[in-house]
Design a protein that fits this description.
GO terms for molecular function: DNA binding; transposase activity. The protein is an alpha+beta fold. Helix content is about 20%, strand content about 30%. It is built from one helix and five strands, in the order βββαββ. The protein has a three-stranded antiparallel beta sheet with strand order 3-5-4, with helices on one face. It has a two-stranded antiparallel ribbon with strand order 1-2. Strand 4 and strand 5 form a beta hairpin.
């Protein structure tokens, strides 16, 4: 079941799949670095009103499926 969000004039369910890749795909995102990155991503998203639906940090890249309000556009944020 889809959990739609509502504002005064809209009903929406916007999700973005974002992938960050390390330069030259160096495998450095592991152990303490991965845990710290996860905490920073959670804090950053929470502070601007973005909900992380799913996320995955591998050794050389990060996947995030996020849900955000209609007022936010990935190209501007």
């Amino acid at each position: 079941m889809v959990d739609y969000k509502k504002s005064s004039h809209t009903v929406y369910d916007i999700k973005y799949h974002i992938v960050w890749v390390r330069k030259y795909r160096y495998p450095i995102l592991k152990n303490n670095i991965a845990y710290r990155l996860r905490d920073l991503l959670r804090q950053g998203c929470e502070s601007i009103g973005i909900e992380i639906v799913k996320g995955n940090i591998t050794k050389d890249h990060v996947h995030m499926l996020i849900s955000c309000p209609t007022s936010m556009v990935p190209a501007r944020e």
